[in-house]
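Because discrete structure vocabularies remain unfamiliar, it helps to consider an illustrative case, giving the amino acid sequence and backbone structure tokens:
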Amino acid sequence: MDFFYDPPLFRPPSEGDNLIIQATLGCSFNQCSFCAMYRSKQYVERPLADVIADIRQAAADWPDAQRVFLADGDALALPTPHLLAILRELSDALPRLTRVSCYATPGNLARKSAAELALLRAHKLSLLYFGIESGSDLILKKITKGTTQRRMAEVLHKAHASGMKVSATVILGLGGTQHSDEHIAGTIDLLNSAPVTYLSTLQLTLDESIAEEFQRKFAEPFDMPDDLALLQEQEKLISGLNPPQPVIFRSNHASNALTLAGNLPRDKEKLLGQLREAMAGNMLLRPFYMRGL
């Protein structure tokens, strides 16, 4: 590529082999106390001409690209006409394009109308990466997520009705040892009431630069769960899930102690069996030095 990314650049694990275009820089919310991803950046909507120039250069270098991820953390924050112009340029420049994806915050998804989402879906924006983190209103307040369980359920239903797929993430350990039960129970309630296509779990990993802020906003001493406690959370979560549609489940993020993969509800017992083997010490966990964000 002859153009340069504005670092830091983040993307979901499943986008590692796909073309990345920075439509925005940073995150328009950028207040979640557990997340340090874009703290070094001020949110900016990149000029459309610059994005189009990047697309044309990328297409010259990789004309057969089939999937594109729109970075940074908030491409869905763009006004719909601006985002449509990007999607049209991608389709024109990449004749084999099949899918465009981006991160979606609850607030930005709420601000798009059902008609706007359907229009974006018609122009190949078909996958949204959505950070649930927790379904517990208590935990959502403590981590300054800026949303509620009810609001997330509403926007997830809206995305589903538009024909978009949603890849959702949950962070194990986010309630600490003291609020583990509320964290998992609320998350089960949300996932059993709102449709997602993919579900991934991560383990809480706090960057040193935000650890103090996280503790302060949590508003009480925070006790980090150990691996056994996190595996127990995973077991409770999977045991309680009866989603409204089949879900492809993964825990393949580098933060996880144990990698799991399966479909829910079909593979529930297999996944629970693997977790119980790990908790009994019969499966190797990922060493700490190999874990990361």
Summary: The beta strands are 19-22, 24-25, 44-45, 67-71, 99-104, 125-133, 165-172, 198-203, 247-250, 261-264. The radius of gyration is 19 Å.
